[in-house]
Amino acid sequence: MNETAKPIVSIAHVTKQFPGVVALADVSFDVRDGELHSICGENGAGKSTLMKILSGVIVDYEGEVFLKSKSMKFAGTREAEAAGISIIHQELNLVEQLSAAANIFLGREKRTRFGFLDDHEMELAAEKLLAELECHISPRALAGSLRVGDQQLVEIAKALSLNTDILIMDEPTSALTEAEVERLYRVIERLRQREVTILYISHKMDEVFRLSDRITVLRDGELVKTLDCAATSPTEVTRLMVGREIEAVDFGQPRQAGEVVLEVDNLSLPWPGHARQWRLQDVSFQLRSGEVLGIAGLMGAGRTELLECLFGASEEVPQGCILLGGESVSFRHPSEAKAAGIAMVTEDRKRLGIFAEMSVRENISICTLQKAVQAGLVVPAREQTFVDKIVDRLRVKTSGPESRITSLSGGNQQKTVIGRWLLTDPQVLLLDDPTRGVDVGAKAELYRLMDELCRQGIAIILTSSELPELLTVSDRILVLSEGVLTASFDRSEATEHKIMEAATVSARK
Amino acid sequence: MGFASKYRNEIGLLVAIICVVGFTLIFNQSYLTAPEINVKNILHQTALLGIFALGAAMVIIVGGIDLSSGSVIVFSASICALVLMACAPVDESTGMPQTDQIVGWSPVLLAIGVTIVVGLVIGTLHTWLITVVQLPPFVATLASLVGLRSFAKVLNPAVSKALGSEVTKVRADAESFVLLSEWWVALTVFLVLAVGCYVLMSHTVCGRHLYALGGNEEAARLSGIQTDRMKWLVYSIGAVTASIAGILYLAKIGAANPATLGVGYELNAIAAAVVGGCSLRGGIGLIPGVMLGVLFLRVVIDAINKVVPKGSDDFQGMIVGFLVVLAVAVNEFRRQGGGKKKQFFPGSLGVAVIPILSLVGASVLFVMYGNTAGIVTFFSVLAILTAWKITESAAAKR
Asked: How near does any CA of chain B get to the CA of A352, in Å?
């Protein structure tokens, strides 16, 4: 690749704000014609937002995007495709009920002289495109019946039929088998021979270093650096990816962990119909009372699935052994876990946590309303008493327990959900990314709350997308990568860099 | 939340009921000349519809739907009548069971007991189809809607023949059973059930869990609520209330005819629940609202009966349809924040809908009052809606 190759895409001072968050802050870099340019960064670094801007999914942003030196402002994905930019999303976008050929030509169907669909012509063209991509499927096969790897190639074929010269691939290998990954690499090589410029999003270092010409690292929505692949190393890139800042919280005295309350032995969670076969594979660890066990891992590493297994909420039945207080347990419904003293604050607060139609009071008392019952009826005064206690203890900011839960800020909503579970007197508290969508001040409050709970003897498992958060709050940190436990650190030896290395290692055997 | 904002819907319904009654008073003398008969009649009808509307409403509150009530009513009525027949003394000369010869309460109580168990069985079957087979509630209860009526049609002649009777319409005219046709019996049953449902929904843990399930099923499950048990409870209540209504309809009419009894009643019940403030999205709805919704529906239907000169029965469906659209539209409008400017006739769809609405209005007035009324209505509705569209398009452009 020629150093002086002209940029095909120039991103100039692009800023994108979502309510409360800056997703991209003044990002500028060039993509050279014909290169494979990788974009790396942690969860939430702004990779996807940037790609959505380039592909016309996000249309309102500040700054400018130049395509072949011309300033472009796409009004939608159609316009971006017409200009030669296609994107292969991580979640594939095929109409499952239509054939591969019909998907490739969706919206641009070939027609006969009489205006009817020309299926024959489309199937021939599709077959040619697919053969070129080593995809040996019938163009008449329904997209839904294809393996994920083949579906992806159908999308790539669609991009080729559009005469795409810039192809964006968002973590394309995340759902592929080993053989499919190798085939994808060959397809990428062929695309490069056709002089297609590829923007490659991934956090797997071996892939990035195998394929890229250059690498751009994003962190917290800011551009850290653009590097030549030949002149850098995986260690340097992971070092650049980490280093987010959070508010410092001082917890005073170090905590003392007590005895083991939860022991997980060779826990595996099957994943039927997926190339990886296992969402979790042979995970083992111990949890002591009075400690915070952090679980790190990138998107799709299996953090949520692990907590769901412990809480009896997983869709499939997990294999392996879970010991709670020395006794083997296997919960098949969250109510059983709740009765045994496990509580879980779910990841997606809006979808899985709060009851939007209900008041703050009703949201807090939902798990423990039975405590307020006398002669079969709920006594409002009793319910009020323990709700008030929690509101005070967690310092929930609300105009009153009767206000709608949706009138609270994200942090206060999260506190009500945590409060709901504290009322069940849990031994083990599972917190799945509890600070997502919570502002900085409220985050620090949640950290202090976790510390306080630990000191009262509760054992906490915390997952987070933010490494500094894990490093601040946790006593120990486990790292998951693709469902496999790849590392375990004590707080004293853990660094963001070490964790990131363990999280980006390809764990597949 | 204060009283006024919590019960806003109920207060609105009360006002609406008073308005409709006032309207009927102006156009018809019957309320003044025979108040007692009218009140009894309306209350009887309200109670009968209300009994299974309570069940329908609870299913809607947990985010489901029960389309089967009408057929459960006729099926339960058939079962009840068949049990009565089986208990009846046989006429020695013809060999036919004489239901009017039944003495005492025990056969009647047996029939009622068996019928309620049948309701429970239907509800349990629905729950199994929905939670285990994972059919959408719409499909599971639609199957019952179609299937149970047909089942009753087959069952009635077969069983009554086996019992020695020749009739296809299964009769139930035992003296003690006919007592159940009194208006105050239905009203008492309705009020008792309504109080029970109100206490269950608003003052027990179970009720709170039902609202939670309706509002966010996944969050409810993750809060440790046994969502499948909750569903069994409401679908059983839905079917059992329909069975109870079936018994009372049987007592009122005296025979269970699968071809006519309870046709379309499930939609009246759903309509009453929706008019009463239940959201089809689940999680919202109060029992007092449902009771007022039923009363409102019956008062409106009664008003039509009084005011419309001919064929008033046939107008019921239109009225119910119109009220449901209106109630849901008002609720949606409120949910979306009301204050926002909303275009009701945007673009070409708006252009197409204006003459359609004018035609509908004109047709109704035409059949009621003849040519002139139809033509006048058509053009006035057309003019009003066109003016509406022009102003709203102008406002949108600005």
From this structure: 4
Residue of B nearest to A372 (CA): B205
Amino acid at B103: V
Q: Is A337 on the interface with B (CB under 8 A)?
A: yes
- Quick one: DSSP state of residue B171? E
Our CA dihedral for B336, B338, B340, B342, rounded to 10 degrees, sits at 90
**Which residue type is seen at A486?**
T
What residues in B contact A338, CB-CB < 8 Å? Answer: 223-224
* A351 in contact with B, Cβ within 8 Å: yes
Q: Is residue B262 part of a domain?
A: yes
Give the B window 209-238 contacts with A, CB below 8 Å.
Answer: 209, 211-212, 215-216, 218-226
Indicate if ipTM > 0.90.
no
Angle of helix B106-127 relative to helix B227-253, nearest 10 degrees, comes to 140
Answer whether residue B340 is part of any domain.
no
Asked whether residue B366 falls in the same domain as residue B231, the answer is: no
Which regions of chain A carry the CATH code 3.40.50.300? 7-241, 258-341+426-509
For domain A7-241, the CATH architecture is 3-Layer(aba) Sandwich (3.40)
Are B221 and A334 a contacting pair at CB < 8 A?
Answer: yes
Give, for all 398 residues of chain B, the pLDDT tens digit.
Answer: 567 777 888 898 999 999 999 988 888 888 888 889 999 999 999 999 999 999 999 999 999 999 999 999 999 999 999 998 888 888 777 777 777 778 778 889 999 999 999 999 999 999 999 999 999 999 999 999 999 999 999 998 888 888 777 665 667 777 788 888 999 999 999 999 999 999 999 999 999 999 999 999 999 999 999 999 999 999 999 999 999 999 999 999 888 888 889 998 999 999 999 999 999 889 999 999 999 999 999 999 888 888 876 666 777 788 888 888 888 888 777 776 655 567 788 889 989 999 999 999 899 888 878 889 999 999 999 999 999 889 888 887 76
Using CA of residue B23, residue B26, residue B32, residue B33, what is the dihedral sign?
Answer: negative
Torsion, Cα B44 B46 B49 B54, to 10 degrees, reads: -120
One domain, residues B293 and B389:
no
Q: CA-to-CA distance for A285 and A264, rounded, in angstroms?
A: 5
| Structural domain total, chain B | 2
Predicted structure pTM score: 0.82
Q: Tell whether B259 and B121 lie within a shared domain.
A: yes
What is the span of the domain harbouring residue B277? Answer: 3-335
The CATH number of the structural domain formed by A258-341+426-509 is: 3.40.50.300
- Tell if the CB–CB gap between A356 and B215 is shorter than 8 Å: yes
- Please check whether residues B247 and B366 belong to one and the same domain: no
Using a CB-CB cut-off of 8 Å, the residues of chain A touching B225 are: 335, 366
Number of other CB atoms surrounding residue A178 within 10 Å = 12
Same-domain status, B240 and B359: no
Whether B62 and B192 map to the same domain: the answer is: yes
Residue B118 lies in a domain: yes
- The rounded distance, in Å, linking the Cα atoms of B102 and B305 is 37
Q: What is the CATH number of the domain that holds B22?
A: 1.10.3470
Overall size of chain B counted in residues: 398
CB A442 within 8 A of CB A265: no
β-bridge pairing A327-329 and A319-324: antiparallel
Chain B environment of A373 (Cβ under 8 Å):
204-205
Are residues B271 and B381 both part of a single domain?
A: no
Q: Is residue B342 part of a domain?
A: no
Instruction: Please give the full DSSP string across B350-397, using - where no structure is assigned.
Output: HHHHHHHHHHHHHHHHHHHH-HHHHHHHHHHHHHHHHHHHHHHHHHHH
Q: Which residues of B touch A371 (CB under 8 A)?
A: none
Cα–Cα distance, B210 to B231 (Å, whole number):
8
B315 shares its domain with B357: no
Query: From the CA of A436, how many Å to the nearest CA of chain B?
Result: 17
**Domain ends where: B292, B310, B335?**
B335
